[in-house]
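Work through this:
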Amino acid sequence: MKHAKERTNKAKRAKHSDGKKSIKIIIIIVAILLIGIIAYKMNDFIILGKNKTINLVINNKNVTSNLKKDILIKDNEIYLSKQDLGNFFDKYIYEDEENNQIITTYNTKIAAISLEKNTININGSNKDTFTHAIKQDGNVFIPIEELKDVYGIEIKYLEDSKVLTIDSLSKEQKKAIINKNTSVKSSTKIISKTVDRVKKGSYVIVISEEKGYARIRTENGKLGYIKSSKLSNTVVVREEMKEANQIEGKVNLVWDYYSNYAKAPDRAGENMEGVNVVSPSFFHLDSNGELKENVGEAGKQYVEWAHENGYKVWPMVQNDGEGMLSVTSEIMNSYKKRQELINEIIVACVQYKLDGINIDFENMKQEDKDLYSRFIIELTPRLKDMGLAISVDVTAPDGGETWSMCFDRNVIGDVADYIVFMAYDQYGASSNKSGTTAGYNWVQLSLKKFLETEDIESNKIILAIPLYARLWTENKDGKLIRQSAVPIRNTENVIPSDAERKWDDNLKQYYVEYEEGNDIKKIWLEEEESLKAKISLVTENNLGGVASWAKDMENEGFWTFLNDQI
């Protein structure tokens, strides 16, 4: 009995002890919670002090952790590294070592800032600066203040809080007045860090509002949350600026080629249903690399006719002719020569009241691919600055070095308003065997590469279709003798009426073969059925539009047919 009683007493003491421990734990937890709540209420929970390094806030987002290099302050000038400007503003920024300058482009501006002189050139105009780009420890740093007009930004350095804020002037900005002294928190949770304090009557930038809380930026450049009820008189101080497309809906372009020497055709009285852009052959490079024009009075009248009929005019700039491989290469390899050509194009656009330009450079060196991209990168902002459009013609992704491998389609498609896929000459004038001009399966596969491999936005791609086929002549042994382009309006005059037409469902074309004397004639037809199949890819892939090569090759009723398809 004695032992049983002792065990009972021990159990009671142990239970009592466990109870005391539980009470202590509960008291500690409650105390912690009370301290947290009191601290929250009294705004004393972890006040963040001054930043140890300069924080960078771009468009109300703290991007300090993304900086590749530290922000430099030298002689009261703020410098960002070339890598960081490339990351935040211009991924195509580069160093022009030949002229010891940095070239940067953004929206409607191209700028060249010197590494040795206090000068900057913006869109062809020179301007003095307070400082220049510098090199330090093998890295290039650029004074951001000198680029505010280029990037369209507002810059503020808040020295007390060591925060550099950069705001795009094209983005919406809202401000409000604080109606009661309050703390700015790192989150909307009950217990969160205090990042700043704001006083009644001070202004804050309102970033967003949701579920009774507002995300704000304080006058110290700090980002955080307060209750929406602490805001008064919220107003939009800057509206968002959106870039408008020159063409609403799908582009329907037709090239109007009339050689580099003939007069522009008289189109008075003509109307092409659905067409909204015409591209006459106004400009070409000569053997000296100079821009030659073929406009004249006839061309001026052509522009007037186009505008009266509601067509935009995007003339071709071509590099066709003898010796163009080396001539084009010489221009692409020199920043100065690229700028000279760009300036000539800009002057012509103003002189002839043009709406845009179609760049049609072919037969270029593969090793100049990146430099040709530079040309498009540098030309585009100059045109956009005047509200003009730029379209760039390219070939299919697979092909020869000077025909296909000379284009960086991803960059061109990213920079230009439109990239035009010339979906023809699958078997062209230089082919050593007979074949279709543009088989549906080839066009479809090439287009898939544009969209997936080259990663180009679908609405920037214009699909160019041929208004011609090629008539191939072979001998009895199958050796190719010659070929010639046949406009679709002449097809019926070329093919014998008794020739059999065989449908190829992969090509979506009719194939015709017949004998003529000792020769065998072959042709893969372009007509409504074949063109309808290719044009359907525009709608299926939500492309930017269609282009036709070339005017006067079409048959009667073609423009109505094309308009119905797109």
